[in-house]
Fold:
Amino acid sequence: MDQIRWGIIGCGNVTEVKSGPAFNKVPNSTLVAVMRRDGELAADYAFRHGVPKWYDDAEALIHDPEVNAVYIATPPGSHTDYAIQALRAGKPVYVEKPMARNAAECDAMNQVSRETGVPLFVAYYRRSLDYFLRVKELIDRKIIGDIRFVDIHLHYQPYAEEVGEGARPRWRVFPEISGGGHFHDLASHQFDFLEYALGPIKTARGFSRNQAGLYEADDIVVANFEFESGVLGLGSWCYTVNKEQRIDEAYLIGSAGKITFSFFEKFDIKVETDSGTEVYTIPYPQHVQQPLIETIVKALRGEGTCPSTGETGARASLIMDWITGK
Structure:
């Protein structure tokens, strides 16, 4: 492939800044069509972002001859169907995370990718962000010695639409659409990066419960996990704490020090060793998916590789299945 001409299925909020504009900013890449079931919203998106075509039918976009690569940005419940349609149409797929609702759906997507020989990529963009690449570099350089264990804390207060009279939670807490709750949405990023930085997780166990009754999905998860390297990990995810207890921190404990970083909210990386404390501040780019999209375009042009494929992306879903007992 020479010029990558993208079509987006599901031009919702995630595509407004995080991803959508990046397709026109990466060399040899152009966004040529968008689709949303609500045609008026699709047309509005196309107008605001200068996209030539819009559709209210995914199949029509997939079979548009001007589109030669498809970005799927719908909720996870439709990822498998759309991805398989696009792959069978011979069009490389870039799919949002989590890759699907569970590992079995991920496997189905990967099977078709292997059968057709058409590439499949997943939007685990932390694998290409400078902030997380610095964390990986510090690990690889053994700044804190050999890694002993990982400790994750992600505790949020409920979203405003999830509480009070007339509460209307969004799709992320409906398991039939998302595969689970906020844990599936956010922990997928965490496990994907941890495997990228520390190698494969060979086993994981946990407990998931709904304590607050605000919606059907679990709202608290605790887990422990073991990497093939022998590194151990533990984590807690709770989405119904008081806002004063909100925390997004991860700790890497090594034989010679500690690294503290954030997966979502902060731009600082703190390194503590016998030599003292050093802090790196590395903000995200305007379009956080742009660095990963650049690697996808290069891979499709035969100029490089992408670190986030269907095979690597499926791993996060498998680990979450282990933890939640699915």
Remarks:
- The radius of gyration is 20 Å.
- The chain has ten helices and 14 strands.
- The chain has a mean pLDDT of 97.
- The first strand starts at residue 4 and ends at 9.
